Amino acid sequence: MALSKRELDELKPWIEKTVKRVLGFSEPTVVTAALNCVGKGMDKKKAADHLKPFLDDSTLRFVDKLFEAVEEGRSSRHSKSSSDRSRKRELKEVFGELLEPGRRSLQ
């Protein structure tokens, strides 16, 4: 599944930091390539094939970490949206009609 621009923007700092740790220096080309892989919804094997020229022996470890970060990001966004819906439901139960759209006062 491809990632949205927002998800890619959230993932970019992690990729930059991880690329620097793996290579020992910052490399924008690798960051862009990694973002393209997850942005286009490539599976691990395709992503590894795409990134291998940049990362050599570190490719599989990097791709595993990359896909773990993507899944963690999705999980945290999913649980946050679920808890937000739950919170809205609780507020509506407490305040009832006061939360109806268009109602501007408590009277």
Automatic annotation (TrEMBL):
Q: Which GO terms describe its cellular component?
A: spliceosomal complex
Sorted alphabetically, the keyword list is: mRNA processing, mRNA splicing, Nucleus, Phosphoprotein, Spliceosome
GO terms (BP aspect): mRNA processing; RNA splicing
Its principal location? nucleus
Sequence ranges assigned to domain PWI in this UniProt record: 1-87
Q: Which domain of life is it from?
A: Eukaryota
Pfam families assigned: PWI
For whether the record's keyword set contains Phosphoprotein, the answer is: yes
Q: Does the keyword Ribosomal protein apply?
A: no
Q: InterPro entries annotated for this entry?
A: PWI_dom, PWI_dom_sf
Query: Which cell locations does it reside in?
Result: Nucleus
Q: What does this protein do?
A: Plays a role in pre-mRNA splicing as component of the U4/U6-U5 tri-snRNP complex that is involved in spliceosome assembly, and as component of the precatalytic spliceosome (spliceosome B complex).
What subunit structure does UniProt give? Component of the precatalytic spliceosome (spliceosome B complex). Component of the U4/U6-U5 tri-snRNP complex, a building block of the precatalytic spliceosome (spliceosome B complex). The U4/U6-U5 tri-snRNP complex is composed of the U4, U6 and U5 snRNAs and at least PRPF3, PRPF4, PRPF6, PRPF8, PRPF31, SNRNP200, TXNL4A, SNRNP40, SNRPB, SNRPD1, SNRPD2, SNRPD3, SNRPE, SNRPF, SNRPG, DDX23, CD2BP2, PPIH, SNU13, EFTUD2, SART1 and USP39, plus LSM2, LSM3, LSM4, LSM5, LSM6, LSM7 and LSM8. Interacts directly with PRPF4.
Name of the protein: U4/U6 small nuclear ribonucleoprotein Prp3
